[in-house]
Amino acid sequence: MVNILVADDHPLFREAVSLVLNTSLEECNILEAEDVEQTLAMIQSHDDLDLILLDLNMPGSGGLNTLLEIRNIAPAVPVVIISAETNRKIILQTITYGAVGFVSKSSSKQEIGNAIEQILEGNVYLPADIIRADTETVQPKSRQHEAQISSEMLYTLTRKQLLVLKAMAMGSSNKQIAYDLNISETTVKSHVSAILKKLGVHNRTQAVVGLSNVDFDQYLKR
Question: How big is the CA angle at 80 (ends 33 and 104), to the nearest 5 degrees?
């Protein structure tokens, strides 16, 4: 069961997104929030969330500051921005601030469904035109995050956290990691949260950038 919070102040849009999710995902439990206060309360009272779909322009919203607040409260839960925003700079800033995807409200139902599926598989999603126009902008950020993850940082991780990070680098979902390591999804999320904090990154994608050539066995032998 995938637990998703849809935070948007327009009831009709929440209903439309819920329909897309129920169509795209086999098992889906959807929670709804209509303003920032309710969104934060929902996040704090539900520690089993797998994904948050967030509109940055809800009542009480501080824009990107709201995204930062959510990342601080639930750093292990991926956040996707769903917005009518078209400014490329702002869209890319949402990724820099810790979102794992940006979906335009003008997207078709199929595009929204495909985006959510990619994100739940551990990928970052951006509109195709943003990727084409800003490849040079995005890549330096990726290299920057890669450079920040040093051997010393990896050595601060516990054995279990290393196993979780290794699985994340292979693209495994929280559910798959829990199954493979014989632990609960809640425990996996706790490990992911600790990993992000120790590596100094905002989301799991930033954590695994550049780790494809890391010899995890070297760190697991200690």
Answer: 95
Q: Is 60 left (phi over 0), alpha (psi -120 to 50) or beta?
A: left
Rounded to the nearest angstrom, the gap between the alpha carbon of residue 189 and the centroid of all alpha carbons in its chain is 12
Alpha helix (H) residue ranges in 25-158: 36-45, 64-73, 88-96, 109-120, 128-133, 135-148, 151-155
pLDDT string in tens for the chain (222-residue length): 889 999 999 999 999 999 999 888 888 899 999 999 999 999 999 988 999 999 988 888 777 889 989 988 888 888 999 988 888 888 888 888 888 889 998 888 888 888 888 888 777 788 776 655 544 444 444 444 343 577 888 888 999 999 999 888 877 778 888 889 999 988 988 898 888 888 888 777 777 766 767 888 888 876
Q: What is the DSSP letter of 125?
A: B
Q: Give the residues across from 82 on adjacent strands.
A: 103
* Separation CA 69–CA 111 (nearest Å): 28
| DSSP helix/strand/coil, 3 | strand
Bridge partner residues of 6 (DSSP): 32, 53
Q: Compute the distance between CA of residue 10 and CA of residue 83 in angstroms, rounded to an integer.
A: 12
CB of 199 closer than 8 Å to CB of 156: no
76 touches 190 (CB < 8 A)? yes
Give the DSSP per-residue string, 184-195: -HHHHHHHHHHH
